[in-house]
Amino acid sequence: MIRELAIYEKAEHEVRVTEEQLRDTLFRDHPAAFAHIAEHDGEVAGFTLWFLTFSTWRGVHGVYMEDLYVRPQHRGGGHGLALMRELAGICAERGYQRLEWAVLDWNEPSIGFYDKLGAVRQDEWLKYRLTDDPLRRLAARRD
């Protein structure tokens, strides 16, 4: 399903994760990330992958939803809402005060879905990322 999501997001060429990496990340003694699966009639309909964050302003953990994906044939069936509700429930149960994520600016169906949930866009924040060569160059800098 990760590959399906990457195809949907026009970024299949960026997928590098292996099954072994996922297994280690999700099922070790202290997982680095967590996943939830939505099923419909015994078939996997969608998933969400998330990890903990920490807010220095609020002084508590939050949840960052890295991915939410529902297979096309299952969209509109409430699976995305159920997955989001599960994450919101985790936040409420554990006293976490933020549930955050990013969405591609062209993904109108998802933007509409999130807007209907009452989510607030954080347009004043610009998202940055270092990967590959720029990340290695920064790590090697000694100035």
Order of helices and strands: HHEEEHEHH
* Total number of helices: 5
Structural class: alpha+beta
Overall geometry = globular
Number of domains: 1
Distance between the termini: 42 Å
User: Helicity range of the residues?
Assistant: 25-40%
- Which architecture would the CATH scheme give at its second level? 3-Layer(aba) Sandwich
CATH fold category name = Aminopeptidase
Strand order of the largest sheet: 1-2-3-4
Q: Can you walk me through this structure?
A:
It holds the Pfam family Acetyltransf_1. Residues 1-140 form the N-acetyltransferase domain. It comes from Nonomuraea solani. It is a single chain. This protein is 36% helix and 22% strand. It is α+β, with helices and mostly antiparallel strands. The protein has one domain: Aminopeptidase. It has a 4-stranded mixed β-sheet, covered by helices on one side. A hairpin with a 2-residue loop joins β1 and β2. The longest helix is centred in the middle third of the chain and has 16 residues, at 79-94.
Q: Tags for this entry?
A:
single chain; 143 residues; alpha+beta; Aminopeptidase; four-stranded mixed beta sheet; 4 strands
In a nutshell, what does this entry contain?
It holds the Pfam family Acetyltransf_1. By secondary structure, the protein is an alpha+beta fold.
Give the SSE layout.
Elements: H1 2-8, H2 19-27, E1 34-40, E2 43-54, E3 61-70, H3 79-94, E4 99-101, H4 108-117, H5 132-140
GO molecular function, one term: N-acetyltransferase activity
InterPro entries: Acyl_CoA_acyltransferase, Diverse_Substrate_AcTransf, GNAT_dom
Pfam families: Acetyltransf_1
